[in-house]
Amino acid sequence: MRNSPIQFDTLMLEHPQLSEKSLVDFVNGLEVIDDHIRVREQVNNRFISRMWGDLNGESALRQHTIDQHVTESLKTVSTWLQCLQDQQIQSDLAIAKVGSKLLETRQGVMVLLEKHNALRHEVEKLLVSMDDMNEKYGQLSIRIEQVNDGRLATQHIEAVFDKWEAGRLNHYPVLVRLFLVFDELYWGDFGNYCRKCGLQHKEIQRLVQQVQDKSLIQLKDDWLNMQLSSTAYPWQIDTKQGLQKLHAEHNEVIAYLTDEAINDSMPMLWGLNQLANDPYRECTLPSVNLPIILNAQNAVNRFSADFGVRYINE
Fold first, then answer.
1. Is the separation of the CB atoms in 83 and 56 below 8 Å?
2. CB neighbours of 118 closer than 8 A, spacing ≥ 6?
3. β-bridge partners, 32
4. pLDDT averaged over consecutive 10-residue blocks of the chain (314 residues)?
5. 171 C-beta neighbours (distance < 10 Å), count
6. Residue 235's closest CA among 181, 186, 183, 274?
């Protein structure tokens, strides 16, 4: 394994969905309970913390739960608002999470205003900032609804597959490349279009089929170039060997992007998560939901099914 560190700006260029997912995870970590506004400490948050520190140039977001003093609570909200202002959020998932949490946080701040009159001036300034943020994200939501979603989705498909065909994912094992393509589509314009129209929409089904066809073509080419079996591919063995050669940061990217996968409903994503977290495991993954071998068509079908579950669950 190569252990020399990779800067997060490099990872962001390779995988733009990282910034969107990290924002959603951070927003989900905020809690508003009466007059306690705090950042919840996350389990195994080393990778997330490092990424936020690199994105924002500050360590305030990595501190432990803040719930002892009202003034500290206000500082936490102010830090969060500054973080949102600094980020260029494009994903509809991130926008929806931000909008919901802004409303919840504003309600919590109103409680502060009622309970602590001495801080009225500070709280009122904070409410003005939050109203400005609400307006900003409201306008962004309107803009996303008004753009030509189908055109953007088609352009997104072409851009992502161009990246794969150009070899910019070649340092990853072949099935990880397939996952990363599906995942980038999920977080970007293609995913936005799917969620807006629904997977049963005729145009969405056409685009999904296009993604599957392009994936099958590129996967067959990769397997041919790597002299892998196209009919009986031992995916776990080959994936483990490929993961062992990666930088630690690349393995962390895979583990992070698959951290919500469930064994029963998203077995392939769950399998990648397990392998990325422990690429040196000796035995095969203990799951009846995972195949031992794959061919190109089966691989595309299985990852498509897993991502179909992700879309439905949103």
1. yes
2. none
3. 37
4. 62 77 63 47 57 54 39 55 55 59 62 56 66 64 62 93 96 97 94 89 93 96 88 92 94 93 94 94 85 93 95 83
5. 15
6. 274
Number of other residues whose CB lies within 10 A of the CB of residue 130: 19
CA distance 55 to 127: 25
Alpha helices in 149-260 (DSSP H): 149-165, 174-187, 189-197, 202-225, 235-244, 248-257
Measured CA to CA, the distance from residue 277 to residue 254 in angstroms comes to 9
Q: Which amino acid is at 313?
A: N
Structure-block tokens of residue 98:
């931000």
Orientation angle between helical segments 149-165 and 189-197, nearest 10 degrees? 140
What is the total residue count of the chain?
A: 314
Directed axis angle between helix 267-277 and helix 296-313, to 10°? 100
Q: Is 49 exposed, middle or buried (0-12, 13-18, 19+ CB in 10 A)?
A: middle
Contact (CB, 8 A) for 309 and 266: yes
Angle between helices 296-313 and 202-225 (to 10 degrees): 140
36 membership: H or E segment, kind and range:
strand 36-39
What span, in angstroms and rounded, lies between the C-alpha atoms of 299 and 6? Answer: 29
What is the rounded CA–CA span in Å between residue 290 and residue 268? 7
Give me the amino acid identity at 312. Answer: I
Rounded (5°) CA angle 181-185-189: 155
The number of beta carbons lying within 10 Å of the beta carbon of residue 34 is 10
Token pair, residue 112, equals: 């502060």
Mutual orientation of helices 149-165 and 202-225 as an angle, nearest 10°? Answer: 0
Could you tell me if 80 and 87 are in contact, meaning their C-beta atoms sit under 8 angstroms apart? no
The predicted model scores a pTM of: 0.66
Contacts of 132 (CB under 8 A, 6+ apart): none
